[in-house]
Write the structure tokens for this entry.
Amino acid sequence: KSDATVSMQGQSIPLTIEETWRLPDHVLGVQSVMGQEMRQGFDGKAGWMAAMGQVQDNPRAVASTAKDAERSLWTLLGKPASVTLVALDAPETVDGVAYTAASVQGAKSTDLTVLFAADGTLAGVAYQDEGQGAQVPPARVCELFSGWSAEGALKYPHQQRVLRDGKPFLEGKITKVELNPVIDDAIFAKPAK
């Protein structure tokens, strides 16, 4: 769960985001903004979205869930033997900071670049996003991580900043991480209308 602020069209809008994953292909995302809730799910076979009393199929969910899973820190860090990082010749500069960059090979997402801080710690990822319509057009996305702290035996970033084509888009603080919970299949199912 994270509390975030999204910047769109010159406005900063507070929102809460909750994501539940059962990798690689079950996800439920809940966004609450200005008193409204939008839910998007994928049960491993079909996607859906529900907002403002409407429920509809989401045929793009298959591809977007697969890409999100491939770009996930859980996939990158949870299966290190399945990917190879190849150092890029030039650093990637994001918001005035030069990061050592490496491309990810061996993953389905071939456009993923991993960014490292000067001390060698993981600083973020960058990739080309397809966008989500007129309000969120395609862009080079950089997700920057900070605030690393322990979650059980793991260290996980508790702050995230997202830039789209170099412009601030989202800034959030992760307020809750739950590792390996028992998750009932029913939460991923499309709600009745």
Notes: DSSP finds two helices and 14 strands in the chain. The two ends are 26 Å apart (CA to CA). The helical segments are 61-71, 73-78. The first strand starts at residue 2 and ends at 8.
